[in-house]
Amino acid sequence: MAGSKLVLEGRISIKAFLLGLSVVLIPLIRSLFGHIDWVFDCLTETPGKIAISVHIAVVNGLLLIIYSGPIYKVAVRACFLGVTFGCGLMITFSQTTWTHFGWYMCSLSFFHYSEYLVTAVINPRSLSLDSFLLNHSVEYTLAAISSWLEFTVEKLTVPELKQLNWLSVAGLLMVLCGECLRKSAMLTAGSNFNHIVQNEKAQSHVLVTSGVYAYFRHPSYVGWFYWSIGTQIMLCNPVCILGYTLASWRFFRERIEEEELFLVHFFGEDYVEYKKKVGTGLPFISGIRVN
Predict the structure, then answer these.
(1) DSSP symbol at 35
(2) Which of 36, 51, 45, 171 is nearest to 99 (CA)?
(3) CA 151 to each of CA 5, 214, 220: distance values in angstroms, whole numbers, following the listed order
(4) Per-residue pLDDT at 2
(5) pTM for the whole structure
(6) CA–CA dist 21, 8 (Å, integer)
(7) Long-range contacts made by residues 52-60, C-beta under 8 angstroms, separation at least 24?
(8) Angle between helices 165-189 and 99-122 (to 10 degrees)
(9) More confident residue, 19 or 97
(10) Most Cβ neighbours (<10 Å): which of 103, 262, 272, 286?
(11) How confident is the model at residue 127 (pLDDT cuts 50, 70, 90)?
(12) What is the pLDDT of residues 230-241, one digit of tens each?
């Protein structure tokens, strides 16, 4: 675990995230003037859209004035995620059939922001803009866009499909459990955690087998796996549920095999014994074979 003092980038990201989140003040102010549906109007009516656009422009202007260079890049990303989380809250608490998409926006933005913040806490030496995971890969971006398109098309053509509340709640629970498991794994691993598979053993690198690692060899991957599938169950996206399941399973199978090659090299018999006692936590993925 890193020291008790949060690094500068982490502190700035919190301020910027909260600044972006302040977008929720717009419908709260409007509610003072007697609007019944005081939330969703801000996202659908022209005055509301203008107010949000002005808010974003003003906030970005403030960030440009206060910060510069790499620090600004951190702040603007955290702020963007804060705005997204705020808009998700607006949709969630509005009188609309798009509520589940509001849950999704909150889940997605919180996941990416918390990846950066937790990394700032546990392993500031590895902290970078990539820690937001916003540019994880082209495939990841295409998967996200495809889920948005599927939800929108099906919402317009078969709206009853998007009203399976019990299924969306089940997806939300998967998202929450997956998120908690992943962040627990990161916090337990501390400075041993890194978003990039390490091919060289650092002097401080130790084999973590306690906490959630006593139940899963790769708890952060287990959490991310079920989180990603849960987002699509939450949206009631049948095509993406299948697609995300297959794509995530293949990705983590290859990732675990690659990572365990280095872990066996780093820790030798200690890791082999740990591997025998604890499973990966992912279905039908056993990791590399060790003779």
Answers:
(1) -
(2) 171
(3) 42, 38, 27
(4) 45
(5) 0.93
(6) 20
(7) 52/23, 52/26, 52/87, 55/22, 55/23, 55/26, 56/23, 56/83, 59/19, 59/20, 59/22, 59/83
(8) 0
(9) 19
(10) 103
(11) very high
(12) 999 999 999 999
